[in-house]
Every structure is written in structure tokens, then in C-alpha cells.
Design goal:
The protein is α+β, with helices and mostly antiparallel strands and 203 residues long. It contains seven helices and four strands, in the order βαβαββααααα. It has a four-stranded mixed beta sheet, covered by helices on one side. The N and C termini lie far apart (35 Å).
Amino acid sequence: MKLYHFPLSGHAHRAVLFASLIDIPHELIEVDLAAGAHKRPGFLALNPFGQVPVLDDDGVVIADSNAILVYLAKKAGRTDWLPDDARGAAAVQRWLSVAAGEVAYGPAAARLITVFGAKFHADEVIARAHAILAKIEQHLADHEWLAGDGPTIADVAIYSYIAQAPEGNVDLSGYPAVNALLRRVEGLPGFVPFKKTPIGLAA
């Protein structure tokens, strides 16, 4: 397997993290976004959207980070990470949608402003971040993990951008249950830390 990624991308990190957590052998290939490598014909042949991550499993190409999580879990037969039963699968899917929606437009967008200079309104996206963090905090009041009794790809999907939310000036100190979840993910065997953003990029 080849996993095309960029170290400062939360979407890429969740794919790299999960591959490591379930110990699937893979070759990491860094895509130089700053040099525009993701917009060149070779990469666009893999993903016409020009985004990382992309997984190439011997010619089976999977783009989109959440799709990669699903593919890897299914490929490895890891029903602990992605249940086969209808209720369990739906519970996981709910949080994959949150990761692609509220988390992407809240904590992730706030970080894009400070790290990559994205032209979002900081007050607006930070408010969105706190709105979804409050909902996650409430959910975790009586759940140790987001979906089920153990870690699933739901927890992996929300981890990266929430863990890095302070880089986007989103204060996590008011969310003890969220912080506890982050620490539980970080304590899993095979955990891979998010690459520290170089000084001068994050404001």
C-alpha cells in the first residue's frame, strides 16, 4: 500500500494514524502541497480533486480520509473498529459525518486561518468549533468513546483536527471529556503524533 499524505494535514493524519493503529504495512509518500504537487497531472490521475490523503492499494485507489478509514477497517476485517451490525455501523457513520461537516467547518477551518492563511472569518469558524465541541462534550458525559464500548474509526476521524484546534485559537480547556478522549486515543498502541506545526506557520 502507498499512502500519499502531507504531514500538516489533519485529513492525512487520520489516515496515517489508523493505518498505524491496526498495523497495516504501508509506504508513506509525502505530497509537497507548497510546491503544488497535488495539482500536477500525476497526482490528479489518482485524485481529480487534488487533495490528500490518497491510498493506492495495488491499483485500488481510495481518496478521501474517511473513505480510507472505512477501506482499511474492511480490508483488515476489523469489526472492532467498524462494526458490521446495522446499529454499530450507523453510530460510526454519524461521527464520520460530523468529522466531514461540523469539525471540518469549525476546528479545522479555524486552524486553516492561522496555519495556512485561509480567508475565513475567524470569529465565525471559532464559534462553530465551540458549538460542535459542546455537543461532543455532552455526548461524552456518559460515553467513554464516541461509538460503542471501544475505539472505532469515529474516534480516529475526529481526533486530528480537534487535537490541533488550539493552533486555530480554539481553546479546549473548557471540555474535560473531550480532552480525556484525546488522551485515550493517544494512549492506544501504534498511536502516531500529529507533526508539530513549525514555528512561524501557526499564529
